[in-house]
Amino acid sequence: MSDFAHVHETPPPGAAADWTIPQDWDRYTPQEHDTWVRLYERQMKVLPGRACDAFMQGLDALDLHGGGIPDLEKLNKALEALTGWRVVCVPGLVPDEVFFEHLANRRFPAGQFIRRPDQLDYIQEPDIFHDVFGHVPMLTDTVFADYMAAYGRGGLRALGLGQLHNLARLYWYTVEFGLMQTPNGVRIYGAGIVSSATESVFALEDGSPNRLGFDMLRVMRTPYRIDDFQQAYFVIPGFEQLLRETLEDFAPAYERLKALPDLEIDEITGEDTVIHRGDQAYAKAGGRFAV
Ligand code: HBI
Ligand code: FE
């Protein structure tokens, strides 16, 4: 999320050279734990039947239920045993190369703080609820876990090539806002969706956004919204294809992209597989969550 202005340039006081900080789990207040519980309970009303099986199973495998902000030391024991991933705490957004370096080494950087009670519906900077509830269950899936590490390595290469704007769209439209086709219908796996009560419904059921079959080059040409519901969602057939394509070096794709213009955010091309042609009514009415 390099689009945000307030990323520090060097680790703030108290942070290590790799920007990590202690979780200090004992220091969360009862009110902060209560915020987690309220967010958790709200999501559990909307996610069954909407989130993919891997996400729901990940919640179980990590015991991410009940009692408040998770103690990452305990969570990491279970997660490491499953896929070799660990969660580390960071103060907020970290520079791109720091973020990718962690991912490439199977460390997921999570915001240490939790949003204030008046920010239950939306915060711009990722907090521990978005990062741990939203992202970490998917890291229990062996294929998805490999995909995230491959993305981290790809991020480091993209930075060197000056192509991060293209690669960031892949992260956005998969890891954050991805949908998946399953035998039971389209399901959510993106962390930005599963951590939002309103977008969990909007992404799957609203008539407004386009839902299109995933295509790597197409996604890399598609701009996105950082502060509102998406105007397009991309539907993958499964994680294997995503991993396979991301294990490839994207350098040839970046070369092709230099000759291809970006698409409009709500554009549908003749080559798209259209799962739902959105009427964009929400975006046309001005957006900002007034569904
Ligand atoms: N830092 N803490 C944090 N979380 C992110 O998701 C994040 C970041 N820094 C950079 C970053 N994301 C971006 O590089 C991309 O996701 C492309
Ligand atoms: Fe995120």
Distance between the termini: 25 Å
What's the tally of helices? 13
Considering the protein shown, what is the CATH homologous superfamily?
Answer: Aromatic amino acid hydroxylase
* Uncertain stretches of 5 or more adjacent residues: none
Which CATH architecture is right? Orthogonal Bundle
Give, in order, the helices and strands.
HHHEHEHHHEEHHEHEHHEH
Structural class: alpha/beta
Helix content: 40-55%
What does this structure look like?
- With 291 residues, this protein is of the alpha/beta class.
- It has a single domain, classed as Aromatic amino acid hydroxylase (Phenylalanine Hydroxylase, Orthogonal Bundle).
- Helix content is 44%, strand content 10%.
- It has helices at residues 30-46, 53-61, 72-83, 96-104, 128-135, 142-161, 164-176, 191-194, 197-205, 216-220, 239-247, 251-258, 281-284; strands at 86-90, 107-111, 179-182, 185-188, 210-213, 232-236, 274-276.
- A five-stranded mixed beta sheet has the order 4-3-6-5-7, sandwiched between helices. A two-stranded parallel ribbon has the order 1-2.
- Helix 4 links the parallel strand 1 and strand 2.
- Helix 4 (96-104) packs antiparallel against helix 6, helix 6 packs antiparallel against helix 7 and helix 6 packs parallel to helix 11.
- The longest helix is centred in the middle third of the chain and has 20 residues, at 142-161.
- The model has no long low-confidence stretch (mean pLDDT 94).
